[in-house]
Amino acid sequence: MISRFLFGPFRPSVEALRPVLYRIAYAWCHDAALADDLVQETLSKAWTRRSQLREEVALKAWTVAIMNHCWLDHLRSRRDFDDIEDWQDELESSADTPEVSCNRDQVIACVRSAVARLPLGQRQVLTLVDLEEFGYAEVAGILNIPVGTVMSRLSRARTGLRDLLDTAMQQPKAQPLLRRVK
Amino acid sequence: MNPVVSDETLNAFVDGELDVAESEALIARMREDKELAQRVCSLRSLQSMVRLAYIEPPVARGRQASSVPRRQFFQRCALGCLVVLAGLGGWAMRGLDSPPALAARPTTMPDGYQAVSLAQKADPNRVMLHLDSAAPDKMRAVLDQAEKLLDEAEREGRAMQLEVIANSRGIQLMRAGHSPYGERMAQMKQRHANLQWVACGQSIARFATEGQKVELLPTTRTAPTAIGEIVTRLQQGWTYVRV
User: How far is A51 from chain B (nearest CA, A)?
Assistant: First the structure.
């Protein structure tokens, strides 16, 4: 398996995507070990399917589309749902609420947990657009949904995220975190 | 005149999905429409927050143990960047509707004080005076300035709005039983309907945690935070003067 990876220009170019894939995977599942597994699986699938790739320039989008399948497969196996479409708009991760994290004064953790609480479909669109600057058409291709859906999900994702963060930021006011040090 | 711009369109604008003509039309509208500019600004800062939150995602434990300290370092850097960028993003966007973003022009402002305004020309009719100290001379100065500005406006027949915002130790000025100027302030408020005394809610809460109950003078209003009040007013075109 490993020796097969060593041949051809495909390996270095796809291997270079590892950090990109990992970042996206982590933003989707917020679980480092799972994200690592997803990336690994995606890279090996990308390798076996490399003949299906038409244009070299589309490599990133194509690989992320594969990862989307891996992620959905994983969710299917974990939950007894037949139709993911049904919970595409509902699934939230069980992460801490943003309020809890903000009290620990970690802005990054706060944003992450707010993202984690977005419904799955919205979370995927948001992270693809914001983290990797994919165009709307590319995102539509990767997730296999219409561009109109990309736009509405993105819009709802950002509105939802802002609301979550607003609530989270307002929380500490009741109990000031900064104390006077004399 | 113009219909409300949809969230979808604004998102597309922020993500660079609109064509050149559409983008230009939006930018032109944002110059006039403060609220629209505000919405774009908030979308952009949200975007940079998301971006920075994932700059260095945590590494799976046990797989690449060596990079753990680095990760923490990066997280701190990212946190710093986040704070700086969120701020910068906001200021940069303000630049759109007023090219010299910070025009500190003390046109009618009292000598020795610097006025800050987001508008090209500081608005002399909407002014905030900020007090954050309980020093007797500062307290007196803030009242003197307020009176001077209001009297001047009255003489010139301008309708002026003025807010005196107190936080930190400056709260002392507005506390019933502690303020050395309670009577004078009541008189001023009576003479000038557009004068507001605003106390910072967070500072009051801090006094409370130190075991001091804060009772404000009857004409005083409480804002959740002084900084929030100042930023909101600045965005509304007010002029800020720190005493």
Answer: 31
